[in-house]
Amino acid sequence: MGLLAVPAIAGQRGNSGNHGPSTHPTPTHSNGPANAGPKTTKGPNAGPSTKGGGSGSHGPVSTDTSAKNTGRGSPHKSGTTTTTSTTTTTNTSATATSINFAATPVGAKLTKNTALQSKLSTRLTALGYTGTVFEGAYGFKNLGQFVAATNVSQNLGIPFEQLKLQMTGLTVDATGKVMKANLNPDGSVTLVDPANVTKAAPTKSLGQSIQTLKPTADATTAATTATSAAETEIEHTTTPTSKGGKKKS
To answer: Is pLDDT at 19 greater than 90 in this prediction?
Structure first.
C-alpha cells in the first residue's frame, strides 16, 4: 500500500507539475506560435522585403529577387528600374551599331564602279592608309571630292587621313568606329564619339585644307588639278549603260 501510495502522490505531483507548467508555458507557446506564425509569415516577406528592399534597389539587378517579389509593392520599383536599364541598354546598343560604309551614297557608287574601287584601294594603301576604300570614302560629300582628295594626297605628299579630317571632320579608327572632330573651348580639336560632340570643328574645302596642311603649296592650282583628274578617272572607269553607250558614276 505504501508503495502504491507513493506513485499516486508522485502522479498527483506530476499532474500538478504539468498543470503548473502548462499554465505558464502553454499560453507562452500558444501565443508564441500564434504570434510567431503570423509574424513568421510576414517576417519572411518583411525580412526578404527588407533585404529585398535593400536588394530591391540593388535587387532589380537580380532577376530572381524580382521574381519572388512579383505582385508585391517592392517589385514595382524593381520592375521600373529594370525597364529603365533595358531602355539604356537598347540605346547603347543602337549607338554601338556598326556602319555599313559600302551602303553610303559614295560607297554605293564605288560598289558599282569596281575598276575605280580597285584603283583607289591600291592608291590608299600606297599612301599609308590602313582602312578600307569604303571607310576612306565615308564622310565625303560625293565621289569626285573623295577621288580628288586621294589625288592631292598623292601629288603633295599630304597624309590622306589628315586631309580627310580637314574636309569632313570625320575619321574611322582601326576598329571601324567613326570619330568626329570636336572643337574645344581653348581652340584645340579632339576626336570623340559623334554622340559626345559639344561643338563640331568647322570643315574646309579641298583648297583650304591644302593651305592648312601645306602652306607652301599653290592650293588653288593643286585643288583644281586634282579635281579635274578625279572627274576623268570616274568617267574612264564607269561602265557604260546598254542603251546609248552613256556612262554614269
So the answer is: no
Q: Is residue 130 scored above 60 in pLDDT?
A: yes
> Residue ranges per domain, the chain?
2-96, 101-237
Q: Which residues pair with 189 in a beta bridge?
A: 183
CA distance 152 to 23: 105
36-47 residue pLDDT tens: 444 444 444 444
Residue 239 grid cell: 561602265
Which parts of the chain fold into alpha helices (H)? 2-23, 25-58, 63-68, 73-96, 105-112, 114-126, 133-137, 143-156, 160-168, 206-213, 219-237
Given this model, what pLDDT does residue 206 score?
A: 98
105-112 helix and 114-126 helix, angle to the nearest 10 degrees? 110
